[in-house]
Specification:
3 strands, 79 residues, YefM-like fold, 1 helix
């Protein structure tokens, strides 16, 4: 089957039933929509819910200097 961008992947109902949880995980992970077919006719479509994607943590950590360098303060444990 030739797939292009924007064309939902077609899955027979029997295959969807057997692999349902794995396919739902794939939809969540990739955002891909899938059309479930029964006897070759489309009967349902699954896809990610709008706003359901987990927010990315990319660029959420900010570096504010050396966190392991000594502070210059003397501790009781240093004696």
């Amino acid at each position: 089957m030739l797939m292009t961008m924007g064309t939902p992947r077609k899955i027979p109902a029997g295959k969807f039933k057997a692999e349902c949880l794995a396919l739902l995980d794939k939809v969540e992970r990739t955002g891909e929509c899938m059309v479930i077919t029964k006897r070759g006719r489309p009967v349902a479509q699954i896809g990610p819910l709008k706003g359901s994607r987990r927010p990315s943590l990319q660029r959420s950590v900010h570096y504010h200097g050396d966190i392991v360098a000594p502070l210059g303060e003397r501790w009781d444990a240093d004696q």
